[in-house]
Every structure is written in C-alpha cells, then in structure tokens.
Amino acid sequence: PALLEPLFPPQPGASPGFAERVRQHKVRLEWVRAEPAGLRGAVRVLNLAYEKVVSVRYTLNGWASCAEAPAAYQPPGPPDGITDRFAFLLPLGASADATLEFAVRYRVAGAEYWDNNEGKNYRLRGRQRIPPGPGLPQDPDSSAWIHFI
User: Fold this and answer.
1) Listing from the earlier edge strand, what are the strands of the sheet with 83-91?
2) Which of 7, 16, 106, 112 is packed most tightly, with the most Cβ within 10 A?
3) For 86-136, how does the pLDDT look when each residue is reduced to its tens digit (9 = 90+)?
C-alpha cells in the first residue's frame, strides 16, 4: 500500500495558539493520520449555532476533479465549551500514491468558512512503500535496539 506523507505539520491542534486561531477563523484542521483505509482527521469549529455542516473537499489530480467527504460530530465536545470537533475519513483506495490536496468547509447560520492552510491547501505526497528486500528484516520489531547489561 502507498504511504501518505503530510507536507504540513500533521498535528496543528497541538501548536501554540490553536484555540485562538479557531476563534478567529471559525474552522481549523486539528490533526490528520494516514491509515490503510485512507486519511483520517479531525476538525475543530467555533460553535456558532446548533445546526452546522462540516466537510472536506479533496482532489488527487490537482483539482481537475474533486470529491467532498462529510465530517461527523464527535461527542462529547472539547471541554472549552465554545468549539465542536468533527471527524472525517477520506477513502483514497488504490490511487493513494498521488498527491492529495484538501481544504475544510464549515457551513453554519447561512455563512461559509474555509480552512485551506492559509491559501496553500493541505497537501500530502503519496509514496509507494518499498517492500523489504532479501536479507532485510521482515519483522517490524526486528530493527529495534536491544541493550544487554
């Protein structure tokens, strides 16, 4: 399977000032993680109204075409009381060796807000995993350091 390598810090929610950026911009990517099923992530939004829709628009071909995946509300919400968390999964299938770009859309109270990584989109580069060759360890734990006393 292909390996997705983020071309941005994959945990923006862990950076200083994240809560303030959510308050200012209304929506921000919190984290992403590449999995065999696709790209999983979480989005934080400012709770402006009860009804809200969060989705992720993405492309694997430089925006020649795109798809949109819904994000689902994740209870219980963050303990700050002013934001909500939504989770998404982008199913990439066999085309995961391409470059993935995405942006997050938040629709609430007749308004629309985007997080597109300051105009650069969130980008992940796909790389094929290189299978271990002859003589290389097959067991992932076999490359661990062992210290004897």
Assistant:
1) 27-35, 38-46, 83-91, 72-73
2) 106
3) 999 998 866 656 789 999 999 999 999 999 999 999 999 987 656 555 555
The domain limits of the chain are: 4-126
Rounded Cα distance between 149 and 147, Å, is 7
First to last CA, the chain: 39
**CA 103 to CA 106: how far, in whole Å?**
10
Alpha helix stretches (DSSP H) within the chain: 18-25
Strand pairing of 83-91 and 100-108? unpaired
On the CB side of 89, CA atoms within 13 Å amount to 6
Q: How far is CA 9 from CA 21, 47, 61, 65, 117, in A?
A: 15, 25, 22, 26, 11
Q: Which fold has domain 4-126?
A: Immunoglobulin-like (2.60.40)
Q: Tell me what pLDDT residue 72 has.
A: 98
Model pTM above 0.90: no
According to the model, what pLDDT value does residue 66 have? Answer: 96
Contact 86, 42 (CB under 8 A): yes
